Amino acid sequence: MLAWNKLRVEPSDGSAVEEYRIADGRVEMRALDSSLVSEPKTESGWRQLTREELTSHVMADTSVARWLECRMGLHPLIRACTPPSYAEQFDVELSTESRGARFSI
Prior knowledge:
This protein has one domain. It is 32% helix and 19% strand. The protein has helices spanning 51-60, 63-72, 74-81, 84-89, and strands at residues 6-9, 17-23, 26-32, 47-48.
């Protein structure tokens, strides 16, 4: 089953497969064993990306950043990368989780 809110990155060097998703206004990722061919049966192992991790993807113009821009839009993605002190000035909804990035459209 294809999901518009998930992205799977499968490196050619045999390192762990990374899966990204947008859930409840958060960007989350998990690392999967590269030997798994089918969809994992559980939804465990997801963790929220920090603002710093999101910013790193955006600054490096990774495939993850381009996917997020298509799914979230440019301005919500930039707001998700913005430090809380600035985000509060623009009335952006912030996550209660420490250092996690949350966005609202």
